[in-house]
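Design job #97: recover the sequence.
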């Protein structure tokens, strides 16, 4: 359980945040770039870059937001660039860029008009379905504000896009209206309406979306919030055509037409019996209906092999929960119960031209994906401050999942249970020392219903004892320490020597230290270190004993000295050392099998500027060594972080 200063806890129930899975695009839509992004509202001009490079990969992210106005004229410029390089047998690149430019004129106090341009591209060496995709959009733009809390944005223009060699262009329009904390007879309302439509040469995309919530406070300790989400979305996107379709229709790429309807209804009621007893009741229902249709279909003779056919997916999710907060003198407690039921059903559609046997085989393939699940969860939190220096905390949770496939030829039906118990003691002398000692026990069990999968039934137990501490024995010296010992035991219900399903264990001891001493006059020394020992073995549950298989020891040290010049420049030099010794067991004797080392110098430079702007540069040279087989390598790694608040 996270350490909480529950003495300052107020039991005022806040609005519950729901994570709603909304529209946007399907799994390939990032490449499709078929939607028009709304213009972001930037409260500040900023430039930020983060660059990292080592032996295995390189990553670069860069964001620019800049806006300026003069009189009634102004402009906003933004650009986001993301790049990743995976260094395998050859370098694989993945790049994304989104450039937006808006020139506007303040025609009225609450009305801006102008023209905008948006350009996106996405490339990926590792996926032919999403490489070399780009789009450009030029549009007329209007922004309006009504009565201070209603905002309207509209775009109408021309879009051109290219995905995997397929070029399409045509008109594209976007309308958004948003109300923020709109007060109607003491009902606070938030709403958002989106209407998006584009008609390209071979593709028609649209998104009609409505989001709304209404909040009402009935008394000082009672309130209610209702939520509604709905969208109707259609996206067409390209993917490489199968050889059979290419031969019949003479095309390189097929088009998937994906339609989706989504609705979410939720409500939460908070009621306070007193300032010490508060109850929350909530529930939600959501339905998602997805239809996938293909422009080009293979002949019926190969449709089973090519796996390209029209289908529909219907998902339903119902959730009910309650939350009770209770305070008795200095004892704080919370009880939460959640009931959730979810269903997913797949079906075959548009079966014209297929024989009855083909329809039967395809229906079996779809029914094999059907599933229903029911989860019941309960959570209990208790916090008791014995004094202003000592406190105790307890948390416990349990959940049960029942997963049914509802199809005779699918044997994935199972029950899953998980229980977590954690108890901790927190001490703070209110001067220079604080520590938390925590014990955790986690138990999970997986039970397949049918014998075809029952060999995978298991029970897992984890025991973990941890201690965290912060100690400042002198004004210039501080040390932070962490100690943890853990044991993980997994026991299979049916062990099989032939398939090598065996119960196993994993035990670990970890010790970490991070210390810093300030010499004054800008000089400071930092030290970070960690020792780790862990063992893997076969676990004999009947005798509760372990037959070791592998043993590892790890060491990490990083001393560093820093110099801060006039609170403006910070320079540091240090050394990193990491080693791992790997042991196997010959009967009961531990035998060294390999040693891995990584070590080398490192340095840093940091510049602190006005407006919380900064430049950080970190560089290091790592030498890597193995003894079995004997080999060595070196790698120059560096990291650059720039933050400029303009």
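Job complete. Output follows.
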């Amino acid at each position: 359980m996270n350490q909480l200063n529950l003495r300052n806890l107020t039991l005022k129930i806040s609005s519950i945040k729901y994570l709603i899975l909304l529209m946007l695009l399907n799994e390939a839509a990032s490449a499709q770039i078929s939607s028009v992004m709304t213009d972001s509202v930037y409260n500040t001009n900023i430039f930020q870059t983060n660059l990292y490079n080592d032996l295995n990969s390189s990553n670069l992210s860069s964001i620019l937001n800049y806006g300026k106005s003069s009189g009634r004229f102004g402009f906003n410029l933004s650009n986001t660039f993301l790049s990743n390089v995976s260094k395998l047998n050859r370098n694989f690149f993945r790049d994304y860029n989104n450039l937006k430019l808006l020139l506007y004129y303040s025609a009225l106090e609450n009305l801006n008009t102008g023209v905008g341009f948006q350009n996106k591209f996405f490339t990926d060496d590792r996926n032919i379905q999403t490489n070399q995709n780009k789009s450009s959009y030029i549009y007329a733009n209007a922004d309006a504000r009504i009565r201070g809390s209603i905002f309207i944005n509209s775009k109408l223009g021309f879009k051109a896009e290219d995905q995997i060699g397929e070029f399409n262009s045509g008109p594209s329009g976007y309308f958004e209206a948003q109300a923020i904390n709109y007060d109607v007879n003491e009902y606070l309302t938030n709403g958002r309406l989106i209407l998006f439509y584009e008609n390209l040469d071979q593709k028609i995309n649209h998104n009609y979306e409505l989001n709304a919530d209404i909040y009402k406070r009935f008394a000082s300790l009672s309130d209610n919030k209702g939520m509604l989400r709905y969208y109707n979305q259609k996206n067409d996107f390209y993917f490489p055509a199968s050889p059979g379709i290419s031969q019949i229709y003479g095309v390189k790429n097929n088009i998937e037409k994906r339609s989706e309807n989504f609705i979410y209804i939720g409500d939460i009621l908070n009621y306070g019996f007193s300032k010490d007893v508060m109850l929350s009741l909530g529930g939600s229902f959501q339905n998602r209906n997805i239809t996938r249709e293909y422009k080009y279909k293979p002949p019926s003779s190969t449709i089973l092999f090519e796996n390209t056919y029209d289908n529909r997916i219907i998902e339903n999710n119902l959730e009910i929960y309650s939350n009770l907060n209770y305070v008795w003198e200095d004892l704080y407690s919370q009880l939460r119960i959640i009931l959730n039921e979810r269903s997913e059903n797949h079906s075959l559609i548009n079966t014209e031209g297929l024989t009855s046997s083909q329809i039967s085989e395809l229906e079996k393939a779809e029914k094999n994906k059907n599933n229903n699940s029911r989860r019941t969860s309960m959570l209990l939190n208790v916090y008791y401050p014995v004094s202003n220096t000592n406190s105790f905390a307890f948390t416990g949770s349990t959940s049960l999942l029942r997963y049914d496939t509802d199809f005779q030829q699918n044997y994935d039906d199972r029950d899953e249970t998980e229980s977590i118990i954690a108890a901790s003691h927190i001490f703070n002398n209110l001067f220079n020392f604080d520590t938390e000692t925590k014990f955790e026990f986690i138990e999970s069990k997986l039970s397949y219903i049918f014998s075809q999968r029952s060999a995978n039934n298991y029970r897992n137990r984890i025991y973990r004892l941890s201690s965290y501490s912060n100690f400042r024995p002198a004004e210039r010296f501080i040390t932070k320490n962490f100690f943890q010992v853990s044991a993980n035991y997994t026991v299979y219900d049916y062990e099989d020597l032939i398939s090598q399903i065996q119960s196993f264990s994993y035990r670990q001891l970890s010790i970490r230290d991070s210390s810093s001493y300030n010499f004054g006059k800008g000089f400071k020394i930092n030290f970070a270190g960690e020792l780790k020992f862990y063992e893997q073995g076969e676990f004999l549950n009947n005798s509760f004993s372990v037959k070791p298989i592998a043993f590892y020891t790890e060491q990490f040290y990083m001393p560093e000295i820093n110099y801060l010049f006039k609170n403006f420049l910070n320079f540091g030099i240090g050394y990193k050392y990491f080693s791992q010794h790997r042991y196997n067991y010959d009967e009961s004797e531990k035998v060294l099998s390999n040693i891995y080392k990584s070590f080398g110098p490192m340095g840093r430079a940091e510049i602190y500027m006005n407006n919380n702007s900064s430049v950080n540069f970190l560089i290091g040279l790592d030498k890597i060594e193995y003894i079995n087989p004997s080999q060595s390598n070196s790698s120059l790694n560096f990291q650059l972080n720039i933050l400029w608040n303009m």
